[in-house]
């Protein structure tokens, strides 16, 4: 069997560090996780972490990106089961809000992520979500489903509403009880974009 290439070894190191960090950040939180916790668990050195991610914050960004991508994939799969593009857009937003019930999402993406990495609107993963929402809004507007609204403004407000609803659900005392209220309000806000004949 041929030896692994340098690129394969580097990718394996990155994967191990992200998996270690994901488990540690979910269990202990970002602030309580030491660099040694992250590297010792997978038999690597601090140097490997610095080389691949720059620092612990860079590693958190990679973990958030991975989880956000998984969240987007789950939401997209639910949306694909819907009969119309409008229902798909609503399903995707409601699914994102519901993922705030997941303890890993709560702690890493919705609490530690913004506290350490800053405004989620600046994260690459959130910008990919915005791109998808923008495309959906443009399609719905072209089909006459939506009022003559600015596509960029509508996409940003829909994304912001879902993200803020998820933050609210994650932070409240009884997330499961708040979830249906947040999803209903999201749907009602979104429906304000509909043309009268489409409602």
From TrEMBL:
- The answer to whether UniProt assigns keyword DNA-binding to this entry is yes
Q: Where is the HTH tetR-type domain?
A: 11-71
What positions does the DNA-binding region cover? 34-53
Query: Which SUPFAM superfamilies does this entry report, sorted A to Z?
Result: Homeodomain-like (SSF46689)
Signal peptide from the UniProt entry: none
> Which keywords has UniProt assigned to this entry?
DNA-binding
Q: Name one GO molecular function term.
A: transcription cis-regulatory region binding
Please give the PANTHER family that the UniProt record associates with this protein: HTH-TYPE TRANSCRIPTIONAL REGULATOR RUTR, HTH-TYPE TRANSCRIPTIONAL REGULATOR UIDR
Name by which UniProt lists this protein: Transcriptional regulator, TetR family
